[in-house]
Specification:
Structural class: alpha+beta
Strand order of the largest sheet: 1-2-3-6
Shape: elongated
Number of strands: 8
Number of helices: 3
Helix content: 25-40%
Order of helices and strands: HHEEEEHEEEE
Length: about 160
C-alpha cells in the first residue's frame, strides 16, 4: 500500500511539473518584445485597428489577450499583452469568432500570418500575397493544443 501511495504521489508531482514546464518554457525562451516607441511607430501607418478583450466566450484565465491591434498592408502590430503559451499563431479570418468551435469551422479559409513568440507586444510582417482587406478579424490560436486565445475585429 505504501508503494502505491508513493507511486501515485510521485506521478502527480511529475505530471504537474511537466504541465508547468510546458507553460513556462515559452515565457523563458520568448524573444524580447519591441519597446513601446517601436510599437507606436509601427502602428502609425495602420489602415485598420481593433482591440483584443479578455471577455470573449473562448477566453479564460489561461487563454486571453488585451490591447490594440493595428494592421497595415505590410505588417500587424500588437500593443498589449497575451497570456503566455506554446505554439501561438496569428491568423486573419473573414468573420469574427470568439471560441474554438467558431475558429475550427473557418480555419481552412483563414490566412496564417505567422508565429507569435512574444507576449508583451509584437510586430509581424504580412506574407506576400495576403491582402488584409479580404479579411475582418485577427485571431490568436494555440496550434499545439487547439486552443482559442483571443480575437479582434478590425473592420
Amino acid at each position: 500500500m505504501r508503494w502505491i501511495l508513493r507511486l501515485l504521489s510521485h506521478g502527480i508531482a511529475l505530471a504537474f511539473g511537466f504541465a508547468l514546464g510546458i507553460y513556462m518554457l515559452p515565457i523563458l525562451t520568448a524573444p524580447q518584445s519591441p519597446d513601446a516607441a517601436t510599437l507606436s511607430e509601427s502602428a502609425k501607418g495602420a489602415r485598420f485597428t481593433g482591440s483584443f478583450s479578455r471577455d470573449l466566450a473562448g477566453s479564460d484565465f489561461l487563454h486571453w489577450g488585451t490591447g490594440s491591434i493595428s494592421l497595415s498592408p505590410q505588417q500587424i502590430t500588437h500593443m498589449g499583452e497575451l497570456a503566455p503559451g506554446p505554439d501561438y499563431k496569428l491568423y486573419l479570418t473573414a468573420e469574427f469568432v470568439e471560441d474554438e468551435a467558431g475558429f475550427e469551422a473557418i480555419k481552412a479559409a483563414s490566412a496564417r500570418i505567422g508565429d507569435v513568440k512574444m507576449f508583451d507586444g509584437l510586430i509581424l510582417p504580412i506574407p506576400e500575397g495576403i491582402n488584409i482587406e479580404d479579411y475582418t478579424t485577427v485571431v490568436i490560436w494555440c496550434e499545439a493544443f487547439g486552443e482559442f486565445i483571443t480575437a479582434a475585429k478590425y473592420r
